[in-house]
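Changelog note: in this version the structure field was regenerated for every chain. One regenerated record is shown below for reference.
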Amino acid sequence: MRAFVGNFFLQCSDAVLVKTRAHVVFDGLVQGVFFRANTKRCADALNLTGWVKNTYEGKVEAVFEGEEKAVNDAIEWCCTRQPYAKVKSKRVEFSKATGEFEMFSIVP
């Protein structure tokens, strides 16, 4: 399959992938279990940018930016594969990627 981009035809594997932004709040057993550190490792492995932080309400909040599939994979990983956490629920808001981040950070 080919995609038309400007004056060029590109193979789909060469086409620009869709970038997205997800603002996520995770609830459950998510603090005191290395959730933020493990989320950063996951985001770095998936080449995502953004941040993760604890909230005063005992939740973890994160913003992921990058390729749409990678963002969805990170959210899924955080919900189901965190080694010590137990996510009971999540709230996700998707929007256009802003490109404002250079890397993925843990916010104190």
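Spot check on this record: The chain has two helices and seven strands. The chain has one domain: 17-106.
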